[in-house]
Design brief:
alpha/beta; 12 helices; five-stranded mixed β-sheet; Nucleotidyltransferase, domain 5; 37% helix; binds zinc ion; Sugar kinase; Arc Repressor Mutant, subunit A
Amino acid sequence: MTTSGTNLEHARAHNRRVVIEAIRLNSELTRAEIARLTSLTPQTVSNIATELEAAGILSSHLPRRAGGRGQPATPLTLNPNSAYSVGIHLDHQSLLIVLVDLTGNVRFRHLVAVQKPQPEPTLSMIEKIMQEMRQQVKIDWRKMLGIGIVMPGPFGVEGISSQGPTTLHGWDNIDVEARLSAATGWPVRLENDATVAAIGERFHGIAKQLTSFVYLYIGTGLGAGIFTDGRIYTGHAHNAGEIGHMVVQPGGRECYCGNRGCLERYLSLQAVYEACGLDPARATPEDLLQVDEETFDRWLDTAIEPACQAINIMECVFDAECVIIGGMMPPLLVEKLIKRLTPLYSSVRSRYPQGMRLRMGMSGSNTAALGAAALPIFDEFNPQYEVLLK
Ligand SMILES: [Zn+2]
């Protein structure tokens, strides 16, 4: 395949996202500050700002005093009520739907417990909850940018990791995006949980100021969300970062994929549940808080070395500014894990202190759904932008 070029229309959409993102990260910025931070020309920033202001996406505020010289500078902020998006997180045990405004405030939240969700009943349930949401929440629904949905990957992979307890079964041939889009009339984007967690971290969390980082997402399995130069890296079939089946202990523990010594046999909720004597089919992340310290530490002993190897590989392959660990494991336990990951292997990041190389990401039940809700906003080719800008 030939590398695609950037035409003017794409460039405009991209620059628009860059401006929105810059303001989101900094709460408020003047046009001059946006130009400086984004390396766009003042003229380009001015054109985009005018267009976004006319669409109500940006609001200008009282001018700041400009130190006595020149034009007073007018700061711009995002108008929370100018656009909305929906985030859906589906995994083995729960379905969470959130509606957020442009600045990330949650305006509706609905959580349902599920067990090994099957496509048809689950999609019907999602459609029903969305109808209830539209009746309950009084907003201008014409300003809906779309739906982001997150499910455990990998997608459309035969063999290797489409088997085993960490994959959702029965969804392989279901076009989730098309189904939900037809039911709601909104654009839908599907991504895997690690990718979405990385996007959420960049939008709402500690990665706000990072352009290249890797997010290790501890879910039922293990995945990595990869940001390079401010863009998410998804790979050929949206499976980039499916590192759970990277062999880190040759000849090690047997894995359902057929390999031995795969990373997620050591570092994943599935692995902790097994090590702590919990039933992986029924246990929830919160159950781990009841496990006695000694048992949990025994799991940690086995996870440290594989985790350090994974971090080393991610740093060296992607020149990541930072590796973030988060996901569905309770924050207290992620913190414990991170404390034990020392010293890290030498890598291209060796000269940075450990606290900068490795950080704790957002965790908790809203994380993935909030990241999913960022997908339609993050997608610069989302056709709903053109609708809003008319
Ligand atoms: Zn494996």
